[in-house]
Specification:
112 residues, Helix Hairpins, elongated
Length: 112
Amino acid sequence: MMVFIMCFILFLVGLYGVLTRRNLIKIVIGLTVMEFSVFLFLVLIGYIANGEAPIIVPGIKAPVFVDPLPQAMVLTAIVIGLATTAMLLSIAIRIYKKYGTWDIREIKNLRG
């Protein structure tokens, strides 16, 4: 139960970074922290204490298996998250090249 609370706290740390920071790069880092807290939560859902990988071997009695679905989903989500982060950083760099600042308040005031 404690690890689920730690996942929630990690999510809140990322949310705090997104909501309170004005720097575009720090906002992207906050989004990434939130993303990884969700990944950690999904992996913990599939975890079973003393569980084994779901590989069936003939002649061996079936032990308790770990649910492989959350792990597969997280692996897919990590790849998608990497692409999303790369896209966010490329947009941030384009905004920096256009306005010359990382501060979202200054960017908001600039028109053009």
